Amino acid sequence: MLSAHPLLDPRRVAAALLVLLALAAALALKHHYSTASADDLRWILAPTAALVELVTGADFVAERGAGHLSTELRYLIAPSCAGVNFLIVAFAALVLGFVRPVRSPAGNALIVAASAAAAYAAALVANAIRIALAIQLHAGSVSWGWLTADRMHRIAGVVVYLALLLVLFAAARRLARARIGTWLPVCAYLGVALLVPLLRGGYARADFWEHAAIVLVVAAAGLAGAALVRRLRRISAARSGEVPRSPPSRAPAGSG
Fold first, then answer.
1. Predicted TM-score (pTM) of this structure
2. What is the per-residue pLDDT across 145-161, written as a single tens digit (0 to 9) for each?
3. Could you give the CA distance from residue 203 to residue 198 in angstroms, rounded to a whole number?
4. Buried-state track 99-118, b at ≥16 Cβ within 10 A, e below 16
5. Contact 127, 83 (CB under 8 A)
């Protein structure tokens, strides 16, 4: 009797369909975000503004159709500051990393739901940190030669987003006790930050290539840092697993 093809295993099919459905939802959110107004994004702009208020101590007031404005700081949290792209990247990376055929369909569905919740929470935290840093850079007009205030703002944003993404993924990996490479969240970030704009004609804009260079350098630094941390952990684990040397035998009492 012929055995069923592995690809037709019900659990594999269910897991694949769930991943495709989750990625389709992420793409739909990406499309919605591209044309969404501030009012459409209240679900993420309002809690982000509340966190920024908590960090900075300044008041942000909702401005219909514009976002959340602080007249004190002269700073507007607009739709472009919503952090939806980070949410999409985090959600996609978690789904691709942890939905597995070995789990039941219900278990995988729970992982997708948990991934959505974790990605949303992480997006709020990452965005609040990024905006708080941007406010400080804006207030201090920080710049050093080629590193203008705008470039500093962009670099800080990329660093915060990638750092929080790696922390989120590392926490999920530890919780799931899964061995998944750091390359997965980094590739997901590069896909949304660079590949999508590139396919939309970003190659024709000089600022895209500058942004791409910043993203690639920060991503390379993140991967190198993650590799260094893993190496240090392995060294530490190897040392802790060494057979301890027996202490030198004591001389009989009175022999000295």
1. 0.81
2. 666 767 777 888 889 99
3. 6
4. bebebeeeebbebbeebbeb
5. yes
